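User: quick one, fold this
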Amino acid sequence: MKQVFITYIITHFVFNVFGQIQITKPNPKLYFDAKYVTLENPTPQKPDSLIDNFHRYNTTEKQFAPYNNLGNYGTAYYSLMFNHNNFIGFKHGFNSFDLYFIQPEKIKYFNTKTPYTQLDFVFGGKEEIVGGAEFAINIRPNVNLGFSFHRNSFKGKSQHQLSIHNLFSIQNTYQSKNKRYDLKIAFIYNGIKNEENGGWSQTDVFTNPFYKKNKSFVSVHLDDASNRYNERNVNLHQQINLGKKVATQINDSTTRKIVKQAKYAIVHDFELSHWKFIYKDFEKDSSFYSSLIFDEDSTHDATKTWKLSNAIYFKNNQQDSHPKKFLFAIGAQYDFIKYQQRYTNEFTHDIQLKAKIYNQTDLAFFGYTVTAAIDLAPKYIGDFEFNFLGKLNFKKTISVALAGNVSLASPTRKQDSYLGNHYAYHTDFKKTFQVLAQAEFAWKKQLLFATIQNYFIQNYIYNDTSSLPTQYNKPLNALVVKFRKDFNTKHIYSGTELYAQWISNRDIVRLPVFAMKQTLYYKGGWISGKLNAQLGFDIMYNTNFKGNAYNPALAEFYLQNKETLKFYPIMDLFFRLQVKFTNIFFRVEHVNQGMFKQKGIFTAPNYGYLDRTFRFGVLWQFYD
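Assistant:
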């Protein structure tokens, strides 16, 4: 069945793409003006028909920071650059898969004149496929319905390394005809299942000729273990615009009273979610873990949360195009949380007051955004967060910005206590205090971007060599520098990303000093310029460091002192084609494997980087 499905997709693709090459003029009946907004960015945006770096299909590859996973797409990951989010209030603490999830604030709410569809697929390796679909249609001028689906199924090169993601959302927007009421509502399902093999149990995998072409013969630490993440989320955002109705001409025969210039608005956010993490291991005699605490025959650790959230805000609206207009929002959020784990069954209240003042940050000469939040719930009282951004937007697309974060946050629920079959602990940690200062420079015309971040953290929490959370009671400082410069000529594109960091205590935070990404390709037009082609390569490299080990039972990276991870530049070759609204790529990953004295790379102790692998991907966009 899989072979039939793949054959159908490829056949459909060939006829579809080369059929499109014959089109010399856009179909006049179609409107290529689909636009979308998100909760985090209410400015309407158009889907990009020319997807930059589409061949970088891996979610972690798309970030402005290098990441490593456990050798297979979809597995637990970590950033090679220091990053610390100090969110206030309740947090469950299982965050090694967050980037993969569909987040409510990133849902795309469309407005279309004709149906919009986007399909994408990536094939390669051993029964490996990444695929997705996005669809939106205005069933009425003021009502839009859309959905998105993404599936990842990567078997991996090693035993028991299968990673399956099923991510789905369905969303709806509605605006009353008089523009008094706006509604955005979405249902999100995030499902992730990963087989956990604990890494290779043999040390000569890259040097033994027997394993050169087939890593499936390498023995692993765990033969029957898995992690599952599951989340169901209903998210609702509604707004009532306050202002006078004005009679407006709709067409030659119709007038309607609409709220044309609403000065103020009342906003209500509602969220109902159920999240769970389950670790299963049916081996009784595994030496990978030091103990079995509760059950001797198998392990079934489950952590679950239920959250009911309501937030209400009062704000003023941008009534005109004046970018300097002073805007504000003030409100409160109440969360009711049920937390369940083994013998723990508790209910938590989280109450936060929030405020924001801002203008159109990217349009005003001096743009600013200031947000503040304080927690009033008994368990988290004293938690606060203050964020600021000041930005100078000069002519010629040059901008300079200063940003910062000052926060005091309680530990996550997993850092507080945990009852599992392999690990059980209870801590008495202090709140973590953080000051983050950040400077940004952007020259968009020259494709030049630079960022400097400085962290000062008191009471930093990390996982020690026994995998248990530990608090560092002295100040921790980290300085992170990110630089990006692109050159884009008629036929040559070069993109360079450089990263460097200094950390005051490398005994508790172990990351490389330097990392880089380099992209270089030739581009040109075929068939009278209607088919655009790109041929080039990516290079990724970072310096050696004593990388953290991974614990499947806790889904956590922790300190280890046995091994220094050694790296060499990794090269990927790619060929991309783009014709109208269709993009395809052919990519050979880790093409230079075996060309160095070092025959392979470990991204974490016992977890090898992927072998040389071929990938094929395609993305279609339709406006009918």
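User: anything notable?
Assistant: Residues 2-622 form a domain with the Maltoporin; Chain A fold (CATH 2.40.170.20).
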